[in-house]
From TrEMBL:
Primary site of residence: membrane
Keywords from the UniProt entry: Membrane, Transmembrane, Transmembrane helix
Reported function: Plays an essential role in the homeostatic regulation of sphingolipid de novo biosynthesis by modulating the activity of the serine palmitoyltransferase (SPT) in response to ceramide levels. When complexed to SPT, the binding of ceramides to its N-terminus stabilizes a conformation that block SPT substrate entry, hence preventing SPT catalytic activity. Through this mechanism, maintains ceramide levels at sufficient concentrations for the production of complex sphingolipids, but which prevents the accumulation of ceramides to levels that trigger apoptosis.
Bilayer topology term: Multi-pass membrane protein
Keyword Transmembrane: yes
Localization, UniProt: Membrane
Transmembrane stretches, start-end: 23-43, 101-119
Family to which this protein belongs: Belongs to the ORM family.
GO CC annotation terms, alphabetical: endoplasmic reticulum membrane
Subunit structure: Ceramide-sensitive subunit of the serine palmitoyltransferase (SPT) complex, which is also composed of SPTLC1, SPTLC2/3 and SPTSSA/B.
Name under which the protein is recorded: ORML1 protein
GO biological process: regulation of ceramide biosynthetic process; sphingolipid metabolic process
């Protein structure tokens, strides 16, 4: 039992992605981003798709792979303070449903962006680079690894 906290989780940050309606909210947020970008008059459809993909992947990288710690005070003796949100997700267990969802969603968005840009080389390179920046940190081999000491502390 955790005295002085309103929840029974050791780290509520680990369960937020499994909460009811989170995946639908996430998909609607990406859809709304795309609609807002499409409504800007001087953006063509390929530019809007590429921007949707790049903005989504940049936000996903920052929130899941760059920011460390939790917004909650946790009784875990500071262990979560050194982990990114992706490393905390489902207590570090690999290949759970939420991890699969957040791995597949940028891939689906990449396929959509590539299709609607008609595989234009410039857009294709931007979309591929953007995809790789969010897929590589999700690999199980990179769990807890800090390349060149970046984001070590």
């Amino acid at each position: 039992m955790n005295v002085g906290v309103a929840h029974s989780e050791v780290n509520p940050n680990t369960r937020v992605m499994n909460s009811r309606g989170m995946w639908l909210t996430y998909a609607l947020g990406v859809g709304m981003l795309h609609i807002v970008l499409l409504s800007i008059p001087f953006f063509s459809v390929p530019v809007a798709w590429t921007l949707t993909n790049v903005i989504h992947n940049l936000a996903m990288y920052v929130f899941l792979h760059a920011v460390k710690g939790t917004p909650f005070e946790t009784p875990d003796q500071g262990k979560a303070r050194l982990l990114t949100h992706w490393e905390q997700l489902d207590y570090g267990v690999q290949f759970t449903s939420s991890r699969k969802f957040f791995t597949i969603s940028p891939i689906i968005l990449y396929f959509l962006a590539s299709f609607y840009t008609k595989y234009d080389p410039t857009h294709f390179i931007l979309n591929t680079t953007s995809l790789l920046t969010v897929l590589i940190p999700k690999l199980p081999q990179l769990h807890g690894v800090r390349i060149f000491g970046i984001n070590k502390y």
